[in-house]
Specification:
about 120 residues; mainly alpha; 4 helices; about 0% strand
Length: about 120
Amino acid sequence: MGAASSAALAISLQAEREAHQARCISVMHNFDSHTASVGQAQEYAECVNFMHPKEWSTDQVLIAKVWVIYALIAIPVTLCLSGWEWGEAVFNWLVWVVAVPFGLLLVVTGIAFVVTA
C-alpha cells in the first residue's frame, strides 16, 4: 500500500468517524425514553458508548499486561515441558488440545486489551 492510498484511507476513516459522530449527536439530542422503541434505545446506547468510551484504570492495564507476559512465557514453557521431541517433532495431544489454544487465546486477548488501553 502506497503513501497516497494510506493517506486516502486515513482521510476516509476520519470522515466516517465524523459522520458517525454527527449522527450520534442527532440521535442523542432527539432521543425520548418515553416514546423510544427498543431499536432506538439500542441505537442511543451505542451512541453513548461511541461518544463517551469507558477509560481503562491503571489496574486494568496492569492486569492485561500481566496476562500478555504470562501467555508469552506459558506457551514455550508448556511446549518444552509437555513432551516435544526435537528429532521427530511429535507433540503431546495435551499441548494441541489445551495448552496451545489457551496460550494463543491469552496472547490475543492480552494484546487486544493492552493495545486498546
